[in-house]
Amino acid sequence: MIFRQLYDEETSTYTYLIGDEKTKEAVLVDPVIEQVERDLKLIQELGLTLRYCLETHIHADHITGTGKLRELTGCEGIAPENAKIICANRLMKDGEIFKLGDIEIKAIATLGHTDSHNSYLVNGDRVLTGDSLLIRGCGRTDFQSGNPGLMYDHVTQKLFTISDETLVYPGHDYRGYMVSTIGEEKQYNPRFVGKNRESFIAQMNNLNLPNPNKIAEAVPANQKCGEVESMAKI
Amino acid sequence: MIFRQLYDEETSTYTYLIGDEKTKEAVLVDPVIEQVERDLKLIQELGLTLRYCLETHIHADHITGTGKLRELTGCEGIAPENAKIICANRLMKDGEIFKLGDIEIKAIATLGHTDSHNSYLVNGDRVLTGDSLLIRGCGRTDFQSGNPGLMYDHVTQKLFTISDETLVYPGHDYRGYMVSTIGEEKQYNPRFVGKNRESFIAQMNNLNLPNPNKIAEAVPANQKCGEVESMAKI
User: Fold this and answer.
1) Does A4 sit within 8 Å of B176, measured CB to CB?
2) Of residues A230 and B138, which shows the higher confidence score?
3) How close, in Å, is residue A13 to chain B by CA atoms?
4) Where do the structural domains in chain B lie, given as residue ranges?
5) Among residues A34, A22, A28, A35, which one has the least CA distance to residue A3?
6) pLDDT score for A221
7) C-beta of residue A40 within 8 angstroms of C-beta of residue A48
8) Chain B: residue nearest A188 by CA?
9) Which residues, 6 or more positions from B91, have their beta carbon under 8 angstroms from its beta carbon?
């Protein structure tokens, strides 16, 4: 398997490129519109063909690259079940498995940051957690139908029950961490350690964070796979 | 082996944490002074003990965390042979091998960015290239006794001759790439592809880059392992 983590500095977003070495098919998870040229160049240099863009959820902080990539390559856009992404070619529900050559990508519905959100377990040894579990943190739950109780339930019951050695690759990081493990997060994530459901909810309801800069533009654009009206055709 | 790549966003610097799972000894390669607390916390959480800080070279764009880490942990500072780092506990020359438990770290002198610079080949399958070979780029050669001819010779003769599958982990990246391979860089690095020694030198002599913001402060501080006069004792 080819596996590459890529970073968008403006929004601290991680995009993941997964490629099957035999079929040369590739999927991009959570691409960012400003990085489409970089990502396509790398895919081409690695001898891969982009077949799918996979979203963990409808992002509020950046515009997805999926629409642009689909236009340029003919790839399919895949989104979580119940995501209000009217343009998705396919939806993935909890537990559904998606094959890319020999690679197995399993959707794990991890709600709470938004009301439709998948983590993706790749070949059983690494999980892309989007904006649910972050490294020593978690996604906020105070807009876009966020729900701190569901965040607590799904992280502790669905992610923390995967084996401790599983690598955790988040959708964002703001402190320079790239990867963690389930074992580490169970032991050291300050949002969860020593918290029960009630105290976790109280904590999340008192973060008082400002809205992301791009929320007004990003959410409606991402519901249309990143097709923004101001976007020049390329 | 525990292997973690860490990022300092202000200076786009990568620090590498390498830990031996048996002895629990750890080395930090190219730590950044502002990230010392983050790095020590992670080392502690992973159950490791910091034994060494390893420098690829005297940095001009950030101040090393080595002095502060040595003061806090009693670890040793290791620098490349000929580096004018008066405080180093030990120097590593070209070809020298350093063992951390079962992990083998081999110095490969890759000059050109500065007149003392080591890349480090870790367990034969990944090379930390500092500011010599970068992903689709290379370090500048226009200050600190830089030498574009040596950069060309050492990258093409010493790094491009390692096996194609070897992972390349650079000292910096400015576009969101984290890792590459020797094979990819031989095929796609625009600084080297289609260039001979002469055209490479001409290219490097015409980059006309501004000096790094911190050069006046960083170089003398790094010659003393990051012990800056204005640094408050912690």
Assistant:
1) no
2) B138
3) 10
4) 2-210
5) A28
6) 86
7) no
8) B45
9) B78, B79, B80, B81, B82, B83
Contacts of residue A137, Cβ cutoff 8 Å, sequence gap at least 6: A189, A190, A191
The per-residue pLDDT for range B64-83, each reduced to its tens digit, is 999 999 999 999 999 999 87
Give the pLDDT of residue A230. Answer: 43
Which of B4, B45, B176 has its CB closest to that of A7? B176
**CB-neighbour burial class of residue A97 (10 A; exposed 0-12, middle 13-18, buried 19+):** exposed
DSSP output for chain B: -EEEEEEETTTTEEEEEEE-TTT-EEEEES-BGGGHHHHHHHHHHTT-EEEEEE-SS--SSS-BSHHHHHHHH-PEEEEETT---TT-SEEE-TT-EEEETTEEEEEEE--SSSSS-EEEEETTTEEEEETSEETTEE---SSTT--HHHHHHHIIIIITTS-TT-EEEESB-SSSB--EEHHHHHHH-TTTTT--HHHHHHHHTT--PPPPTTHHHHHHHHHTTT--TTPPP-
Task: Determine the 3-state secondary structure of A155 from DSSP.
Answer: helix
Residue among B175, B178, B184 minimizing CB distance to A178:
B178
May I ask the CATH architecture of the domain A2-209?
4-Layer Sandwich (3.60)
Q: Kindly list the residues of chain A whose beta carbon comes within 8 Å of any beta carbon in chain B.
A: 4-9, 35, 38, 42, 45-46, 175-179, 184, 187-188
CB nearest A6 (choices: B5, B176, B188): B176
Quote the CA–CA distance of B116 and A152 in Å, as a whole number.
51
Question: Got the DSSP string for B187-222?
Answer: HH-TTTTT--HHHHHHHHTT--PPPPTTHHHHHHHH
pTM of the entire predicted model: 0.94
Q: Are B135 and B148 contacting, i.e. CB atoms less than 8 angstroms apart?
A: no
What's the CATH number for B2-210?
3.60.15.10
Write the ipTM: 0.91
What is the signed CA dihedral for A63, A67, A72, A77, rounded to 10 degrees? 120
Helix or strand or coil: residue A111?
coil
Q: Six-digit token pair at B108?
A: 């490969």
Other Cβ atoms within 10 Å of B218 Cβ, number: 22
- The answer to whether the CB atoms of B178 and A4 lie below 8 A apart is yes
Using an 8 Å CB-CB cutoff, list chain B residues near A45.
184, 187-188
Q: Which token pair is B65?
A: 């965390």
